[in-house]
Amino acid sequence: MDKKLRFNSLTIHGGQEPDKAFGAVMPPIYQTSTYAQSTPGRHQGYEYSRTHNPTRTALECSIASLEKAKYGLAFASGMAAMDTVLKLFQPGDEIISTDDLYGGSYRLLTKVFEKYGLKIHFVNMEKVENIKPFLNIKTRLIWIETPTNPMMKVVDIHAIAALGKTHNALVAVDNTFASPYLQQPLDLGADIVMHSATKYLAGHSDTIIGLLAVNDDVLHEQLAFIQNSGGGVPGPMDCFLALRGIKTLHLRMQRHCENGAAVATHLQDHSKIEKVYWPGFVYHPNHEVAKKQMKAFGGMLSFVPQGGGIANAKKILEKFQIFTLAESLGGVESLAGHPASMTHASIPKETREKSGVVDGLIRLSIGIEDVQDLIEDLDQAIA
Ligand code: P1T
After folding, report:
1. Catalytic pick among 174, 191, 359, 377
2. Nearest-CA residue for atom 20 of ligand 1
3. Beta bridge partner(s), residue 213
4. Model confidence over 137-188: pLDDT tens digits?
5. Cα–Cα nearest to 186, from 210, 169, 161
6. pTM of the prediction?
7. Which domains does the chain have, with CATH numbers?
8. Is the peptide bond before 339 cis (omega within 30 degrees of 0)?
């Protein structure tokens, strides 16, 4: 049935069926660690909740359907999902990653996995050619974040996936900023899609959860093995919250995109703003790629107020009344952040500044409030 439904129906029905026990329309929260067996090894498909849980299965089927994947896998966080992908590799293997990415992803790559012998190259992938010098027989993974956090760089997934194929390297896309509503990386040739479902998918800033989606049988088996062995799985309540959020993903994303466009345009014209980063601008270096691979341009943007500097940024952030100064993004409420001291603080200053994350940069996650209220709040904070 799923294959015939359109995206806006898949958010509600994809991979779902009424619960077998009593016909519950929403997947029940199966708050159990274990399942009765009639004789050793004979059970109804579930043995132990680290391995499988029916509420988690419902979520895994939902993300598989939204990402046009054969398989979905759920984790305790976006970082636990990425950690699972990185455990596919051996000491000596090489990874090429976007140079601009969530600070926690950078930290996991450099502070945890370099210690186990993985070699990581951080590359600006706005130009596909930039990765060519780093490709060699040891390259096992190309890790793409697009749009990037927080500089909103856009990477051509199709072109990089083609390069990955010719070099026998897996291509994984962190699809957190776009969500499957805006782009579906497997369709563009990627091997793995990863989400911090904490963000747009769950959408209500009330849970931490991660997801992977893949098509390849062997890759799925390897990832599921690591998932079960390491045990970084979400509880059933968190799976339920993500499932409930996903049901309105299409409605929320539509408004996030409309509000994002209105705020980006307003800031671009503001006399006290130096620079606005948003892939919807025709002058954005990869606007054409964004137009090609994304349905719209999303609700995330970053800007530098005139004069830049941390003091200027702080002054604005402290004055917000509707935007909340907080880590995270993708919820219904608008959030503002200071990447240099918050989400990207674990990246050395010189490295982060090279990719554009200067002290004056402010990142906005545009929520689904009335956009006029958001614009008025920005104007009073920037004034
Ligand atoms: O927080 P967690 O669910 O573990 O997801 C990590 C993560 C992965 N990928 C991207 C692109 C992300 O933005 C994040 C988390 N980001 C924030 C908390 C933030 O404020 O940017």
Report:
1. 174
2. 328
3. 72, 193
4. 999 999 999 999 999 999 999 999 999 999 999 999 999 999 999 999 999 9
5. 161
6. 0.98
7. 2-246 (3.40.640.10), 249-382 (3.90.1150.10)
8. no
